[in-house]
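Notes to self, ATP-binding cassette domain-containing protein:
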Amino acid sequence: MSNQTGRSTGLAIETAGLVKTFGENRAVDGVDLSVPAGTVYGVLGPNGAGKTTTVKVLATLLRPDGGEAHVFGHDVVREADAVRSRVSLTGQYASVDEDLTGTENLVLLGRLTGHSKRASDRRAEQLLEAFGLTEAASRQVKNYSGGMRRRIDIAASILNTPDLLFLDEPTTGLDPRSRNQVWDIVRAVVTQGTTVLLTTQYLDEADQLAARIAVIDQGKVIAEGTKGELKASVGAGAVHLRLRDAEQRPDAERLLKGALDAQVLLEADPLALTARICNGGGNGTEAAEKASRALAELARAGITVDNFSLGQPSLDEVFLALTDRPATPGGTPTDPRDDTQEEALA
Ligand SMILES: Nc1ncnc2c1ncn2[C@@H]1O[C@H](COP(=O)(O)OP(=O)(O)OP(=O)(O)O)[C@@H](O)[C@H]1O
Ligand SMILES: [Mg+2]
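result:
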């Protein structure tokens, strides 16, 4: 497969000031993205952040209202055909025919994209096997479970090994086992040389899969970088404490606030507290020193700590710090079928 970028920037996607409006609503409001080829790039944001709209613009399904976007060096408006020949899209969309079986869907797609009957049969069989769908191969897709449905969607979208695959919330609503299966598939797809743009509301998903992450909120990129960079921009780490005695928690909270000069979070568990350690561009050592000083103060005050850990902040904590509100990973994603008709480019 060719992975040349067209502009030899090594970038699969490059946008500058990208805007897409729906009436008064600036769904995408000046987005700059640089997605290195050959990696998984995570776009993380809550409901309505503008993830799907961004993906649709990049996949040439929606025309941008401002700014620029290039996919492998091709302008998504002026060179939409060239873009389409290199990308594939799945996720919050129906891409397979519900009334056909798994095999029929994949074979049909193979035939539609110019493969011989024999090659299409073979590819269908291969993919169904790789995605654990062999037993369901001759069942109509409308009778698939959510996890099977997601897998057949992804299988369909990589039938022709695209250079760039858009996965729009591929695991929303799936149980943990199915999520893990989809994650394994994503990892396998990338080893074939495909770049993956993955949107998600799940912080752990971006953490698991993506090399770089853009956090978007209300149409804007509010943070971007490697996982490590994102975490470092928010704080050096988080101290998790579990006390012996719940009655001591208010004192512990006060002492920690003072010693760490940080926000202290009271967990649902009445014995537990979490504090984020701020760093003035500092490093892990500084965090560890601050944490041990704080522990010493708790000991001096007669507060018994049963359990203590110092870790990097979670992406949840990153989102909270960036937006002052939680990322609501449990929120209900909008139903993909609610989408109004697409405004396809010529
Ligand atoms: N076709 C459309 N017509 C009008 N408004 C739209 C359309 N598509 C999206 N929007 C609006 O644009 C904003 C961004 O929506 P978008 O679907 O891109 O968010 P999202 O990040 O994908 O959210 P989710 O996680 O719920 O899928 C929302 O306010 C949404 O209501
Ligand atoms: Mg969406």
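- Residues 284-300 form the longest helix (17 residues).
- The longest strand covers residues 11-22.
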